[in-house]
């Protein structure tokens, strides 16, 4: 039976997907009234606000979706507070409800399967954020569900590295993490002006990290990568409390001075009973197109640190222009120059990370019964 035009418009609009939530407008109950008058169809689509670009993008998507159905105008209507409260209820999973009432992140509830990976370094500028962003994007390209918590309060660079500029959307009191290259991101950088120095006190940081872990709609994740601030400060302590299942990976450059400070941060993690699983040496060498290696920052530091910590050296990432340019332009090198040497090394790093698998943990509650 031929459907009328209103039904067709409602169906097309309902099929649009809110990428950050990962559900269609129909599933979310956000298609409003669709009526027609004098051969003109007027449709309403509810949306949850955010930056003006979000509405502009949605308007263009909606118009494109119904463009071939004749004269249709789509009006975007921001969801009112009652509608937001209803949507929030709809999006809350039982795990999120439990997480909120106990203020324990879903990643730390019993039975959680997300691998939580803390990326740490001794000092700033060694490429920890670039490694985090590229590893996350490569994992997402392989079909894994990935989030990044940018906890590097002294230099939140993840949004810029992934080309994200807008503030996260908020449904009632639930924060939606913006998504780039398939990776969900939450960062202090979304909330503060890049040029304004922010002085964070320990308790304030602790509270913010808790909020980012508990009040953000992360959904189900295979990996949560945490870009940690360099050094051994308060944030590591907060992370240990909120995410005791974190595995730590240490990024260093090959210089011996860098290795010494990196070792300090690795030892701090060990003290907090967070397992250090591997070392990544970055900026290992510049390689000419002819294959000549120039170890600009010295050599051997990553291997030395790995030996001292009793873990594997997982990668020696070269210094490349493409990696730096990718970061500057907000498109990670694994996406914009997949054949670059750095991309090859980053893919090999992700292979290793995946093959290492999660840490095996002793479960005190499981005991072998003897008769
Ligand atoms: N292998 C590399 N080749 C070329 N440039 C690199 C490489 N790794 C990092 N960079 C560049 O070095 C700079 C610092 O990198 P990044 O911000 O990732 O470091 P970081 O350790 O996270 O520093 P911070 O903690 O200060 O944010 C960036 O401009 C980045 O593009």
Automatic annotation (TrEMBL):
Binding-site residues, ATP: 122-129
Domain of life: Bacteria
Subunit and partners: Homodimer.
Alphabetized UniProt keyword annotations: ATP-binding, Hydrolase, Iron, Iron-sulfur, Metal-binding, Nucleotide-binding
Family note: Belongs to the Mrp/NBP35 ATP-binding proteins family.
Matching Pfam families: ParA (PF10609)
PROSITE patterns: MRP
A GO biological process held by the record: iron-sulfur cluster assembly
Name of this chain's protein: Iron-sulfur cluster carrier protein
């Amino acid at each position: 039976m031929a459907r009328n035009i209103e039904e067709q418009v409602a169906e097309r609009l309902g099929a649009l997907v809110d990428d950050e939530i990962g559900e269609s407008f129909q599933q979310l109950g956000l298609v409003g009234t669709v009526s027609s008058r004098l051969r003109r169809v007027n449709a309403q689509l509810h949306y949850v606000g955010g930056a003006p670009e979000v509405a502009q993008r949605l308007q263009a998507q909606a118009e494109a979706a119904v463009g071939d159905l004749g004269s249709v105008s789509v009006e975007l209507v921001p969801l009112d507070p009652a509608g937001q409260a209803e949507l929030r209820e709809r999006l809350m999973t039982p795990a999120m409800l439990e997480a909120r009432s106990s203020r324990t992140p879903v990643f730390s509830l019993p039975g959680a399967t997300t691998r939580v990976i803390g990326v740490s370094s001794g000092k700033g500028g060694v490429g920890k954020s670039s490694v985090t962003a590229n590893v996350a994007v490569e994992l997402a390209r392989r079909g894994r569900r990935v989030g990044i918590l940018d906890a590097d309060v002294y230099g939140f660079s993840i949004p810029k590295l992934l080309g994200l500029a807008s503030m996260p959307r908020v449904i009632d009191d639930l924060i939606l993490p913006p998504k780039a290259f398939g990776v969900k991101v939450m960062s202090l950088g979304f909330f503060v002006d890049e040029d304004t120095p922010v002085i964070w006190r320990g308790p304030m940081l602790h509270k913010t990290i808790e909020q980012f872990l508990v009040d953000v709609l992360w959904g189900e994740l295979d990996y949560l990568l945490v870009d940690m601030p360099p050094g051994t400060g308060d944030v590591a302590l907060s992370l240990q409390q909120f995410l005791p299942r974190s595995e730590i990976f240490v990024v260093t450059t090959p210089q011996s001075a860098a290795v010494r400070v990196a070792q300090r941060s690795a030892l701090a993690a060990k003290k907090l009973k967070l397992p250090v699983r591997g070392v990544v040496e970055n900026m290992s060498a510049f390689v000419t197109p002819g294959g000549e290696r120039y170890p600009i920052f010295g050599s051997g530091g990553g291997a030395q640190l790995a030996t001292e910590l009793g873990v594997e050296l997982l990668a020696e990432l070269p210094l490349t222009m493409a990696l730096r340019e990718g970061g500057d332009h907000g498109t990670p090198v694994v996406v914009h120059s997949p054949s670059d040497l750095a991309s090859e090394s980053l893919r090999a790093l992700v292979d290793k990370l995946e093959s290492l698998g999660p840490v095996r943990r002793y479960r005190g509650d499981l005991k072998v019964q003897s008769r």
